[in-house]
Amino acid sequence: MSDINNDVHKPGMLGGRLCLDFANTVSWHDSSEKSQELLTSYEKLVNWSLHADILNKQQSLSLLKKAENHPSQATEVLQQAIKLRESIYRIFSLASNNETPASEDLSILNEAIGKAYAMMQIVPGDHKFSLEFLNGEERLDGMLPPIVQSAIDILTSEKELSRVKKCEGYPCGWLFLDTSRNRSRRWCSMADCGNRAKAKRFYHNKK
Fold first, then answer.
1. How far is CA 202 from CA 41, 51, 148, 196, 207, in A?
2. Which CATH superfamily includes the segment(s) 18-206?
3. pTM of the model
């Protein structure tokens, strides 16, 4: 049985919201030549979901065992996850520039919403009710509903949607929620794309 690989490359969770971090599971997203896919297998999808706190270790191991017994279904879920990720990426990339997303991408997300809501139920709690996802460790696509819910939360919040930005460090393309007081954040990370931009400016100034 496959196991959780603690040595797998784990990207920094820099997006500020789950769906944006999921969209960032491709490095150099805006370059067809340099882009690097993180979700190259169902196991990598499960590993990322563990890293993102969607799944716990027990749920992750259970899904990997199920995937081993149903490899074709696991491959189908991986393809479904990547299709969803790309639609989320395009939707928020356009939204960050005050542009309207393509109807095809909204259809992909709406289809995912239908599947996600079929896996939810209202649960009573202390003086309130909560919406919980069911059987995350029993369904191979059990990690997707929380990602879909995260996308819904941003898209239906004018305040949060207005704070979605794309890293200016071309061809990075990573998305993030700008929570800075004056909305001045420009990079996915100052230590990464921000430093590269500073070095580039310094080189041109010296030239």
1. 40, 36, 41, 10, 9
2. Jann2411-like domain (1.10.3300.10)
3. 0.85
